[in-house]
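Exercise 7.
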Amino acid sequence: MSLPAPAPASAPLEAALADGILRLTLDDPARRNALSTTMMAALRAAVDTAGDDPQVKVVVIAARGPAFSAGHDLKELTARRADADGGRAFFTATFEACAGLMTAIVRSPKPVIAEVGGVATAAGCQLVAACDLAVASEAATFATPGVAIGLFCSTPMVALSRNLARKHAMEMLLTGDAISATEAWRMGLVNRVVAPAALAPETEALARKIAARSALTLKIGKEAFYAQAETTLDEAYALTARVMVENLLARDAEEGIAAFLGKRAPVWEGR
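Solution. The predicted structure, written as tokens, is:
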């Protein structure tokens, strides 16, 4: 079951492309940037489109207001309990859409960076974990608090358990307690923690550094990273050896090596 895509005018998402960096800003601060069906559809569409757009080198997911995202829209979910089936079909479609969004981020050929300035809870924390990288403000906090309201954060658990050590993930899931940005960095949920005023500039600098690399090389590397992570040691080495060979035969690898040996800047062609 799939949810219909919203009309562009209704999407609580702002998109801006500059110098190869696509900045997607969750823009529903009144609802703490909840991952409503509309928000998820808009974000999924933007991520999918970015993956096919050669002008986009890196995607940044940010948010307006004091919350990065409070997770699923509980009011939206609760309202559907009045449906004839008690909400089952809508709940199923909602979590299928959420899984589709998170896997689209992981499978996108473009690196995706979360810029977290405030609270990221439940599916909002899942969104951070699904991104390839994350930069957080010192003011940011993270939690999977579903256990406190009788709704275990089972789908956020998928992304969380793939970022954190198991016992760290289980503590967050079983207690529902919020952790600071510094603690999130210690656990491996975020890459960097900076002062609030430095959040956007730090994210921009990181995105620009990555955007300067070969788009083809980034695509090859990101795909291989996630593929090998789900295999055995022998399978991982076999897979990545094949990837290295194909990568080495690409024009950008030939150019990059020649540029390095010739002590000059490479000229990427994405092939």
